[in-house]
Amino acid sequence: AELYEIRKKYPEALSNLDKALAIFSRENFLDGIIVTLVNKGNIYTAQGKYLLAQTVLDSSLRIARRAESKTHQKSILWAISENYRLSGNHKLAYEYYVKYHQIYDTLYELERANRISELSMQYNNERIQKENLALKNNNLEMQLNLRKKTNQNRS
């Protein structure tokens, strides 16, 4: 479907997307359903079928919200904003762009917090490893000194 879309062979792309959607629906594979609906919406937008695009994108947004998929919601809100922008409805385009950015910022902050946490854990692990090595070295030195004293006392 993607190759047909790139080549602007929209009827063929939509046909393949409908087949994929049937399979994903039968298997209840939400990610596949969401992505397929977004792709269909984008094709309808490219064809200038803005109302049809909006219907399909709204369906994908409902499913993404039900699935609590912020990543999908972000891409859908972008697609909806673009659909409204291209249809000339700049007020709704802006509203959905703001919603898109809210989720974008939330995901960015989560990613940043996770990265900071990950780096902090790495730092702490390295610090603990260094402390363990220092303790082992100290222990080895004490054992060596004890052996030297023991050997000196025997002599």
Overall geometry: elongated
**Structure summary, number of beta strands:** 0
Question: Which segments are poorly predicted (pLDDT under 50) over 5 or more consecutive residues?
Answer: none
- Given helix and strand content, the structural type is mainly alpha
Helical residues, percent: over 70%
| Percent of residues in beta strands | under 5%
Could you report the average pLDDT, rounded to the nearest whole number?
92
The helix count comes to 6
Describe this structure in words.
By secondary structure, this protein is mainly α. The chain is about 90% helix and about 0% strand. α3 packs parallel to α5 (about 70-85). It is elongated and about 100 Å long. The mean pLDDT is about 90.
Descriptive tags:
single chain, 155 residues, mainly alpha, 90% helix
What is the structure about, briefly put?
By secondary structure, this protein is mainly alpha-helical.
SSE layout and pairings?
Layout: H1 2-6, H2 10-27, H3 30-46, H4 50-66, H5 70-87, H6 90-154
Helix pairs in contact: 2-3, 3-4, 3-5, 4-5, 5-6
